[in-house]
Amino acid sequence: MTYSDLSEQIFRKQSYLCIGLDTDIRKLPPHLLTESDPVFAFNKAIIDATANVAVAYKPNIAFYEAQGPRGWESLQRTLDYIPNECFTIADAKRGDIGNTSDLYARTFFDPNAAGLDFDSITVAPYMGQDSVMPFLKYDGKWVILLALTSNPGSADFQLLKTHGGPGTEHASQPIYEKVIRTAQSWVGPDSHERLMFVVGASQAHELTAIRQLAPKNFLLVPGVGAQGGSLAEVSRYGLTTGGGLLVNASRSILYASTGRDFASRAQSETKALQTEMAVCLAEHVGEITR
Amino acid sequence: MTYSDLSEQIFRKQSYLCIGLDTDIRKLPPHLLTESDPVFAFNKAIIDATANVAVAYKPNIAFYEAQGPRGWESLQRTLDYIPNECFTIADAKRGDIGNTSDLYARTFFDPNAAGLDFDSITVAPYMGQDSVMPFLKYDGKWVILLALTSNPGSADFQLLKTHGGPGTEHASQPIYEKVIRTAQSWVGPDSHERLMFVVGASQAHELTAIRQLAPKNFLLVPGVGAQGGSLAEVSRYGLTTGGGLLVNASRSILYASTGRDFASRAQSETKALQTEMAVCLAEHVGEITR
């Protein structure tokens, strides 16, 4: 999917909502457990209930891997079921030496390998350039690089200050800024067409600085909803004229109810978020150029 | 597996060789492709030929994931076939927020989840403490944390110098040193009983410094063999009285021949490495205390 396709979808749906399909078999409504593939049955109902207002779906691969081979089958069925207009994210946080990242890229991007054809994958930056670039060999596919995450451990390394060396332009910057700048340099001036960054919503006050570094790149923001970030804050600092945000919610939508009404309750939660997003788009993007 | 079990195995076999089961279906000897599970048939032959001198096996999960659900079945069969006395490493380089790392830990450590029961997993440090600790909840299981990897991209972030702040003991240290110190502090004074570090063999000159930081922790050293590191150098700086090293070789063993003699050629390569290791053990560990 191209940048402009994604942007167009956002303004058409008046939404930049990503739904995290972190489907935990231990939390499914009991009546689904008799289905042949309960995880897929749940995801299908969630997708049916939300695809008119969600612009992206993000299965976290851990939830599927933990089910072994049948989990991968649930993942394949789920991905095949997501409407083509929606952006798909393999939340896998992979990253290895070049020839191994090649294989991870095949896994998630080449339907002839593992049967999967995601639009994008989340990637961990620690191993550097040759661990990231293999994912960009696939035309039209995206890397979503971890920059500043929303969990407590983000302070351990991501916020450490680095020396730039004497006389350098950015003499002292946190690691996550260095990750953003460096990754942009790998991809080039139009990096926003292939590269997004993960930025945790609990760090909304850092969003202004990140927007200066990455004025056009999409930011994938987890942590709104169950993890407690503020959608209004994130939107104020993160929205751009192209949209520029994918705000993820998972548990607050998937497990809005554990009964037979789980899909309709998910739909209500989703619609409430979309309504708030439409207001934010009018307020912030309306002001800028549109 | 405990530290002392692993150490005992090393001195009994006179070997600290780990074999990387990076089994690429595109590189298998053609006569195996008619088997019902060619990847497992290959791994089984390699294990049969090498288990008397290898102390550890390390399947890189990317190679199995790229085959979809049947790849996970090959991985299960392979893991079940590895003799119990050998240490097993899921080379997965996972890491996510706490509740998701929990699921990755279940995947690789809880046989009732995905059918896998590895002794250890490689973990990426970028997301910090809560992304690493869930793997240590399982008794007897190990975390092998990426510190200084052997690929070109290791220079992008791992070697950046961080500020320690004025008056701090370690005022300026590369990120990978900070990762080692910080992770040790999470685990406690006996961190060497649960925590290893990945240190690339192409960085042999940094091993002395790393040994000072981590005098007892095992180091998993990839990059000897096809990637060109020197076994003698690594052994000189890395061996300890408990062994302290797992040196990995993959391609140089697996693909020593692409014909029907692949297993016997793998055996010869393995035996040659073990012979060199026995000499290193006598020279370096013999000298120290034994």
Written account of the structure:
2 copies of one chain form a homodimer. By secondary structure, chain A is an alpha/beta fold. The first copy, chain A, is built from 12 helices and 10 strands. Chain A has an 8-stranded parallel barrel with strand order 1-2-3-4-5-8-9-10, surrounded by 4 helices. In chain A, strands 6-7 form a two-stranded antiparallel sheet.
Task: List its traits.
290 residues; eight-stranded parallel beta barrel; alpha/beta; TIM Barrel; 12 helices; homodimer
Return the CATH class of chain A.
Answer: Alpha Beta
Strand line-up of the largest beta sheet of chain A = 1-2-3-4-5-8-9-10
What is the end-to-end distance of chain A?
Answer: 23 Å
Tell me the greatest interface.
A-B, 60 and 60 residues
Integer-rounded radius of gyration of chain A: 19 Å
Number of helices of chain A: 12
Largest sheet of chain A: 8 strands, parallel, barrel
CATH topology of chain A: TIM Barrel
Average per-residue pLDDT of chain A, rounded, comes to 93
Q: What is the succession of H and E elements of chain A?
A: HEHEHHEHEHEHEEHEHEHEHH
Give the helix/strand class of chain A.
Answer: alpha/beta
Assembly context of the chains: homodimer
User: Could you say which overall geometry of chain A the principal axes of the C-alpha atoms support?
Assistant: globular
Range of strand content of chain A: 15-25%
CATH superfamily of chain A: Aldolase class I
User: How many separate structural domains of chain A?
Assistant: 1
Quantity of strands of chain A, as a count: 10
